[in-house]
Model the fold of this input.
Amino acid sequence: MKQIFKPAIAIALMAFAAGGAQAASTGAKAFQSECSACHMAFPPNLLPKQSWDQILATLDNHFGEDASLDASVVSDIRQYLDANAGRFRSVPNPPPLRITELRWFRGEHGRMFKRAKADPKIGTMSNCLACHRGGATQDND
Ligand code: HEC
Ligand code: HEC
Done:
């Protein structure tokens, strides 16, 4: 997949780690509270709209978990994610459901996958905050 930019992860992760969606719209709030129950609320700009739509359409079987929500809540969250999704030059069909399988991510994290698996404090590459922590994120620690 070709992507125009590498997202400004530092700022995004920091803001989300702090739980601060600045413009606390209904959708932003719902996303913050509902989508951070099992993992961090991932920065919306790391996936294209098509991916978020697909994720929200299949919450009853979400990576092996049932993450279903009321239709109205899903609709609020969709509005928020669609408005803040990343812009990608082209998106395959079906769209990717994981940030961690995107090519830039694999390129950036090549050696990290093994390390994440081996370290029980990290566990999986989806655990961004294990390595990108709060204020330190800007330096990409
Ligand atoms: C009941 C627990 C649960 C809830 C609630 C939940 N998720 Fe997840 N999510 C998971 C699990 C488990 C994974 C897979 C993590 C892994 O492979 O390490 C995952 C993975 C993801 C990924 C892929 C991460 C990657 O590897 O790149 C995205 C994106 C995602 N979830 C979005 C959402 C959104 C959006 C919501 C809210 C609508 C949500 N999740 C709510 C359990 C949950
Ligand atoms: C096992 C530790 C680890 C995990 C887990 C991890 N990263 Fe990283 N990440 C790194 C390291 C180390 C670098 C720096 C690579 C370099 O500079 O060569 C990096 C670089 C990045 C970059 C590119 C540098 C930048 O700031 O532009 C982004 C974006 C990024 N990570 C996002 C994420 C996201 C999002 C997640 C979770 C889905 C994640 N990372 C999970 C260790 C990790």
